[in-house]
Specification:
There is one protein chain. This protein is mostly beta strands. The protein is 0% helix and 60% strand. It contains no helices and eleven strands. β1 and β2 form a beta hairpin. The protein is elongated and about 100 Å long.
Length: 239
Amino acid sequence: KIGYFTVSPRLRLDSKWYNEQIEQFVVASSIGSDSVVTNEIKKLDAVTTFDVGLNASTKFYGMFNINSIGINAVRHTVTPSVSYNYRPDFSQKGWGYYGEYTRSDGEVVTYNKYQQEVYGGADAGEQQNINLSIGNNFELKTTVDPTDTTSKENKIQILNVTVGTGYNFAADSLNFADINLSYRTQMGEFFDLSGASRFTPYDYSGTTSKIDKYLVESGKGLLRLTGLNFSVSTSLSGE
């Protein structure tokens, strides 16, 4: 706890031990094409990877006193949360989990030394992203009927809405994640209505659903809908 905020650091460590790995190299052919040779090397070694993260969240409330038409008050609860996650690129030479060979045309090819092992090797590519979500919960509290001694105060959830998105600093394009919106409400005691929508700030072109160009640059607004689902559920039971 730091003031009104809850801060949660995270460290994940994963170590896979193997007794063999591969080595690849190129043998030039007389017909002009390269042949890649793969050798198995008996060697006890560990593939140790990690990723770290930090999450911070808080919660605050707003109370609206009504005291009318059977409603005592409406409470609005807001739960914002932000998290940061990082994983280095384990295909870099310094980690020693990947090898490379050079083709006759000068192209350098990188390969995973542990790609044939049962649990695989280390993941390639750096991950560095920040995620943001804001939850909104609206609750209604009924008033007690003074003329009825059995009357009780009830709390009813009116609406629950959560919106979230993220940004990937390590990506070379399409850094912004989709904006996800989920919502749920209850109609009386019998029906639950829920749904989710997904939006993107990126434009599209032909059969490519997402290109590295913002909609606002093309004069098409800020967001476009890319996914939608909606459901209604109920529960029936006898005595």
